[in-house]
Amino acid sequence: MQWSVIFKKEMVEYVRNVKWIWVPIVFLIFGIMDLITTYYLPKIIESVGGMPEGAQVNIPTPAPEQAFFMSIGEYGTMGILIIALVSMGLIAGELKSGVYELVLSKPVKYSNYVTAKWAALSTLILTSLFIGLLAGWYYANILYGDVSFGTFIGTFLIYSIYILFFITISVFVNTWFKRPGMVLFVSLLFIILVNIITSIFGHYLTWSPGHLSSYLNGYIHTGNVTGDLWGTLATTLFLIVILLFSAVTVLKNKEM
Amino acid sequence: MGLEDINWALIAPLIIVEMILLAVALIDLIRIEETNGPKWVWAVICIFISLIGPVLYFIFGRRQ
């Protein structure tokens, strides 16, 4: 009851500050931009010129699966940045402006407050991701060749876990600081650290969330969900739950 | 590159979507009471920097 009130309030706010329009549009553009640029790259190079007489431009056309994975690559960098920017004021902004005290002066449970906000943000981002990936899949089919619809659904489900992981990191960091800029910086640092640690100790940490996109690449090419991929998904989900719990705990013990 | 070489059916959706983004940003800019910094600067940024301009406005320009 209380939970759905906070969730709805958050949704109304997303409509009011036009997030429900611009976030899906930006994700849609990220999903298809790389596919189109790569497709027209030989022509672009030709028209820009500056190549010596008789020079051959040989850019191999990527396989359809590879092309589809380019959308994922875009979300791994630009998508993460946009999510961090959208979520940096989620709780920190309310801590700063005093709305937070206003909300919690009523008997609102911390856990309801955090999870409702988390769920609202996840709904917005995952819907945008779905639209963007769908467009990417469509363009990969038109420009490069067949990628099955099943692969698209699988890719969306697997990658949304990684995106959820980052959203949760951002919500968690939101409970630490009052300054949105600080939240942005630390949450990006967090995900970069996860990726660096994964690339250094990757042999031991085969189930680290940092491996998810490379395992996903394997899944798109072969269609098989390997044991390592299952393990990684399980670890990531586990970390999401832990982070949400910690976020509630940190907020509870925060001195205002 | 001749313009006839481009398959406009492929690129049109991208252009239309960017136009929608720009339109939404400008309408919002007109209707909003106050922005962070002067309004006309945001209008210039939105119009002249495609994609990034409107996004910057939505994130930093709107007063929360």
TrEMBL record, chain A:
Keyword Cell inner membrane: no
Positions of transmembrane segments: 20-41, 75-95, 116-140, 152-177, 184-205, 229-251
Record bears the keyword Lipid metabolism: no
Single annotated GO MF: ABC-type transporter activity
Domain of life: Bacteria
Entry's Gene Ontology cellular component terms: plasma membrane
Annotated keywords: Membrane, Transmembrane, Transmembrane helix
Protein name in the entry: ABC transporter permease subunit
Record organism: Salinibacillus xinjiangensis
UniProtKB/TrEMBL annotation, chain B:
Membrane keyword on record: yes
Domain Cardiolipin synthase N-terminal: start-end pairs: 20-62
Alphabetical keyword list: Cell membrane, Membrane, Transmembrane, Transmembrane helix
Compartments, record wording: Cell membrane
Transmembrane feature ranges: 6-28, 40-60
Membrane association type: Multi-pass membrane protein
Superkingdom classification of source: Bacteria
Cited InterPro entries: CLS_N (IPR027379)
One GO CC term on file: plasma membrane
Name of the protein: Transcriptional regulator
Species in which this protein is naturally found: Salinibacillus xinjiangensis
